[in-house]
Amino acid sequence: MSGGSQARRSETPVIAVDAMGGDHAPGAIVRGAVRAVREHGLRLILVGRSREVAALLAEEGATREIPIAHAEDTLAMNEGALAGWRRPRSSAAVACKLIRQGDAAALVSAGSTGGVVATSTVRLRTQPGVLRAALAVALPTRPMPTILLDAGANADAKPEMLVQFAHLGAAYAQTGYGVADPRVGMLTIGSEPGKGNKLARKAAELLHATAADTSAGAPRLDFRGNIEGHDLLSGEVDVVVTDGFTGNVALKSIEGAVGFAFDTIQEALTSSRLAKAGTLLQRRALRELSERFDSDTYGGAVLLGLNGTVVIAHGASSARGIERACLLAADLAGGRIVDQVRRRLHAPSRPHGWLHRLSHADE
Amino acid sequence: MSGGSQARRSETPVIAVDAMGGDHAPGAIVRGAVRAVREHGLRLILVGRSREVAALLAEEGATREIPIAHAEDTLAMNEGALAGWRRPRSSAAVACKLIRQGDAAALVSAGSTGGVVATSTVRLRTQPGVLRAALAVALPTRPMPTILLDAGANADAKPEMLVQFAHLGAAYAQTGYGVADPRVGMLTIGSEPGKGNKLARKAAELLHATAADTSAGAPRLDFRGNIEGHDLLSGEVDVVVTDGFTGNVALKSIEGAVGFAFDTIQEALTSSRLAKAGTLLQRRALRELSERFDSDTYGGAVLLGLNGTVVIAHGASSARGIERACLLAADLAGGRIVDQVRRRLHAPSRPHGWLHRLSHADE
After folding, report:
1. Which of A196, A252, A265 has its CB closest to that of B265?
2. What angle do CA B310, B313, B319 make, to 5 degrees?
3. In angstroms, what separates the C-alpha of B183 from chain A's closest C-alpha?
4. Contact B250/A260, CB-based, under 8 Å?
5. Model confidence over B81-108: pLDDT tens digits?
6. Pairing state of beta strands A134-139 and B146-149?
């Protein structure tokens, strides 16, 4: 491993880990960070109340392995959109400061999604030419996950934003999962062209136009057209774009339905006379299913389009979840996803003006 | 049974069954209709090409049991929104004519949802004071199903429409499932008040205001506030309102996720050394799961708010599915759901003016 660690270390950017965010913080966070350093040779900074964090690092005998950046304040798990402004000294805010100063390239936090999105959007700002940052989640399709975005950052989106989400998602699929030429679909109702609500119909036009644009310098986009809710887990496309309201409803509907299927089957199995054998199979089959939906396995959601990589781990993340989130952040930051997005969305100076204004209009 | 049949017959309205709609039409439709008459004492009229239908009735030895209304034309399964205007002689259109003439109270069709929605909306019109008809589906929660609407009839909805959907859904839960005082929730992102997109935030305000209105004659509405995607199958509410775009995406996401869970578990089971026992349990457990999602079990979607009851069975409906759809239509028409909706949405004369204009504005 040390060889690999060395190799990785040489190219690995520094990741600021929010030690105070999450249901099991700071304990699980620090343990996960230590695993990420020892097993994958990542370079981390733990951000949080230094005495607490130092004590936990000492427990792991890792005092010298991970530096600490002090932050006295923390975001509550129910922290909403105002957190960005209200909590300049929160561990998430201090981590963003490290990124702005160039001391770190990425943030990993298991804090409240709303709070982390607000804090990092306000403190890292969107990249030049990016209208809005979007929250991307990896759905457990095979062989490669399908990236769904926006999963909730922008409840009211504009058609142009969905085109940008397509580029953000494609950059994620390339950098995070090595998909050479990501296939992009748009979530709507009815797979035929012209189906959907006003936003979807207009966005589809723009996506087709963008895909058709082969002029020099135009970023390549492989748009496959409309997909429906039941296609989200079919793996037909690598990236699915939609507005943050629809995306969040779809994601949570899927999670709820899988849990429902789970319980229904469990009932049926344990109520059968074959209950005993059932329990065995159950463990095997249901573990398989749950692991595919376990956020620990995927490392969490990624907020794309900011001047820095932001990975938001599940609030209930275990040490392993934090370890995975750090790995994902390292892959994305190491793959220079921010530069990739800049290349894809590079807007000539004049448009840049209104894009930039628009992108900060209602902040 | 004959006693029950007699009892039912005396109170049962006539249902016009579209013999030509559906993947297995007219065979499965006619067989289902015969079962509905013989086993439940329903009163039906089969609408379609009379020679074909008569021949099938003869095969079942049911020539005298169900009258036939001739319709030379049929809607194609891919028939869209224009069908309403384009196909005045389609079996669905002729069935609507029977309702307008008072010869039938309900329509059952397994034809394309788009075509049946368009045809019946154009030919039956919305009830006075109803802005838009909404498509309602019953999610397989326990002990009672949860009614989700709109499931796709109105891709772009207005906040006032969601308030009406709440009343339509409540009338359905009462008439179709005997829920005395249906609990209504609104589908959005984030359960806290003020979460969601513009439409959801405004609609929630109106729903709270409606629920708070205790003035004489105001229809009672038990609004429980926001629910999220993962609550759709939790049975926390009896009715979930949303716009047709979000509702359709949520419904199909659920269907896709259940299928996905299904396959994942099947894989895991059959790949295990206990495969054999697995197959046994599987059949048991997965049958249980599939039955709960089998549209045949629920009789199909209901288009609410028109001058007549419209039940749209799944396109792949078997004879049993058609039988169930006829039962559902009989329960709804017998329970006078149209009158219930009228009572709930009865609007005083002046408002009625603009409501009515609005409701027919872009038809």
Report:
1. A265
2. 125
3. 20
4. no
5. 666 677 889 999 999 999 999 999 999 9
6. unpaired
Is B57 in contact with B63 (CB distance < 8 Å)?
yes
- Residue A135 has a pLDDT of 95
A21: which residues sit within 8 A by CB, 6+ positions away?
Answer: A29, A74, A75, A91, A92, A109, A110, A111, A112, A116, A315
| The token pair that represents B363 in the structure block | 């038809």
- Structure confidence by residue, pLDDT tens digits, A346-361: 744 334 334 444 444 4
- Which 3 state secondary structure label does DSSP give B316? coil
Are A137 and A151 within 8 A, CB to CB?
A: yes
Coil, strand or helix: which one is A126?
Answer: strand
Q: What is the pLDDT of residues A232-278, one digit of tens each?
A: 999 999 999 999 999 999 999 999 998 888 787 777 666 655 555 55
Q: Which two tokens stand for residue B16?
A: 């016009």
Q: Which of B59, B53, B130, B119 is nearest to B86 (CA)?
A: B119
Rounded to the nearest angstrom, the minimum Cα separation between B160 and chain A is 17
pLDDT band at A76 (very low <50, low <70, confident <90, very high): confident
- pTM for this prediction: 0.89
- What residue ranges of chain B have pLDDT lower than 70? 1-11, 77-84, 268-299, 347-363
Domains, chain A, with CATH or none: 1-130+305-337 (3.40.718.10), 136-296 (3.40.718.10)
Q: What ipTM describes this predicted complex?
A: 0.88
How many beta-carbon pairs below 8 A join chains A and B?
194
- Distance of alpha carbon B356 from alpha carbon A206, whole angstroms: 35
Q: Which residue of B281, B286, B362 to mutate against A (max A Cβ within 10 Å)?
A: B281
Q: Is A322 helix (H, G, I), strand (E, B) or coil?
A: helix
pLDDT for A273 equals 57
Contact by Cβ (8 Å): B345, B119 = no
Residue type, position A308, single letter: G
Sheet holding A14-18, edge to edge: A68-70, A43-48, A14-18, A106-109, A309-312, A301-304, A134-139, A146-149, A239-241, A183-187, A222-227
